[in-house]
Amino acid sequence: MPNMESLGKLEDIVISTRIRLARNIVGHKMPEYMNIKEANDLSKEIVNIMKMSKDDEYEYYKIRDLDDLEKTCFVEEHLISPKLYGSILSGAFLLSKNRRTTILLNEEDHLRIQTIYKGLNLKQAYAEASKTDDFLEEQLEYSFHEKFGYITSCPTNIGTGLRASVMLHLPAISITNNIEELVNILRKLGLTLRGMYGEGTQSIGAIYQISNQKTLGIREEDILDRLNKVIAQVIDRENEMRAFLLNERKIDIEDKILRSYGLITNNKKIGFNEAMNYLSDIKLGMGLGVIDQVDGLDINKLMLEIQPAKIQCKLGVRMDKRAREIARSEYIIKTLTKEE
Amino acid sequence: MPNMESLGKLEDIVISTRIRLARNIVGHKMPEYMNIKEANDLSKEIVNIMKMSKDDEYEYYKIRDLDDLEKTCFVEEHLISPKLYGSILSGAFLLSKNRRTTILLNEEDHLRIQTIYKGLNLKQAYAEASKTDDFLEEQLEYSFHEKFGYITSCPTNIGTGLRASVMLHLPAISITNNIEELVNILRKLGLTLRGMYGEGTQSIGAIYQISNQKTLGIREEDILDRLNKVIAQVIDRENEMRAFLLNERKIDIEDKILRSYGLITNNKKIGFNEAMNYLSDIKLGMGLGVIDQVDGLDINKLMLEIQPAKIQCKLGVRMDKRAREIARSEYIIKTLTKEE
């Protein structure tokens, strides 16, 4: 019998929602084939268009003007892609003041409009990205094919050019070794499961992204509806596994959670992956009622802040690995124990 | 510069002292060659002699009357040897009421008189064992050779029949990987280093026994004096390594100690070896001032109590491995955090 009170609420399990629209402009080579001048001219054109936007103010960044730490912080916040990070000649982006929407320029496509929302907000995030998309489309002629839809650099994005992703915390599915089963089910539904930093990355702290694979021959609304339904099922599955752990493996899961709590609140230095695994257990433990909630503690936020670059941006100090481990330890203990 | 205040005091480092005298009685075969009746008759004779002792009252135990748990508890308290545990036909022992002196009967020798003291007390322990030895010698004719001394079953004990052992907690020598060097130095001095349960055992929780190897051609007083001096040097070495850790590896040793503290006070089940390693770090941490002393906490006593059999004897419940791990966890957390 599942202990219903102990199940993870939707907002405990879903961390964030991301919508990304890939677009290209008629009359320009694909970014890979553009020279620097062409790319920069296109960037300027788009920056000038966005200056006319009444809804949001955008800040403009050129990749070549940012140092490694600054760039990495943007990647760790998921505001830019690792690919844009590497586009050192002509990569650029516009970031909205509320930091929800980024327009990536000269990445794999001319334009990638990305909107991130906390929690499960597929429709809202899509509406916001679409508004920016519509505004740009009034001024630009997008590469669009009557039959196929939006033309993109990589064939997997042709059609809607839409990738909808939901980031989830799935510790119980992970602890019970059911991730592989989930990957197989999702694949059959045309969805993929990825690690925290997207394509090709491993999961850290039981955080996974689920996103649509298919963009061709399917309407945007259907992509979102289908993903929404699957996410609801994944949440059910995670809760089923949480109930299993609590009912059938009570001592073991309590032991694991307590040990993670004991370790992360008692150390002098800690690596990012190690800390993420303990924070994952603590997040689960708070969900299961094994450890007490800490008033006002936002573990999702803490998980973002302790990343290798973010911890340096957060504390305003450049640090080597060991210094980061020490600073991360202090920052986490302060945050979790509300020490001053 | 060593931080002198943080060094381990003698009583932190030396756990206990043990004196053991091996004796055999003229006119009897060695225990290995005795039949059960002969062995039992000899036991009875010795029990009757000890009944006349004015100093101590002794309780008499026959190995065959004890079940495995009872026997194992005596071994874990170091009151009987693993060898006597296995002497299921004729093994027996007399235990003094203060539990300091055990007379092991029909083990490797007819008699083994053993006295254990807390801390470093070689002379006192020897005096107490000798008193029992002298009392027995008034009533029994010991096998004694004018030139060689006491005749024992194993040639390594011939001479004084004396083994003097000191049990020490050497975490800093252990952490800095200097145990092997110590073993080599001790070997040259005719001393041996063994694990917690004596011959052939591994160290658990950085606890080691140092004892004399040589018993022939050397006076009892010289054995004790020599061992005393070496123990003083080993304590100096341990303190030198503690100062090194605190001065040169401060963050790392604090990290190790804090993590052990965090783990042992936050879990639902814990194995014996794992718990011993954490308690060893905590004992070191209290010595170094890294973690606060707990009023009235006796870690040496706790280390004895959490052994696989002792935890059952202590709590008065027979338990399988998993139940012991859960009970050990509760007992340690209660003791360390002074919870009620």
Summarize the structure in words.
The structure is a homodimer of 340-residue chains. With 340 residues, chain A is α+β, with helices and mostly antiparallel strands. The first copy, chain A, has 2 domains: 10-238, Creatine Kinase, Chain A, domain 2 (2-Layer Sandwich), CATH 3.30.590; 249-336, no CATH class. Chain A has 13 helices and 10 strands. Chain A has helices spanning 10-13, 36-51, 68-76, 82-85, 122-139, 171-175, 179-188, 220-248, 250-264, 272-288, 299-305, 310-315, 321-337; strands at 14-23, 58-62, 92-96, 101-105, 111-118, 144-145, 149-150, 162-169, 191-194, 207-212. Chain A has an 8-stranded antiparallel beta sheet with strand order 2-3-4-5-1-8-10-9. A two-stranded antiparallel sheet of chain A has the order 6-7. In chain A, helix 8 crosses helix 9 (250-264) and helix 9 (250-264) packs across helix 10 (272-288). The first copy, chain A, is globular, with a radius of gyration of 21 Å. The two termini of chain A are 42 Å apart. The A-B interface holds A 251-252, 254-255, 258-259, 261-269, 326, 329 and B 251-252, 254-255, 258-259, 261-269, 326, 329.
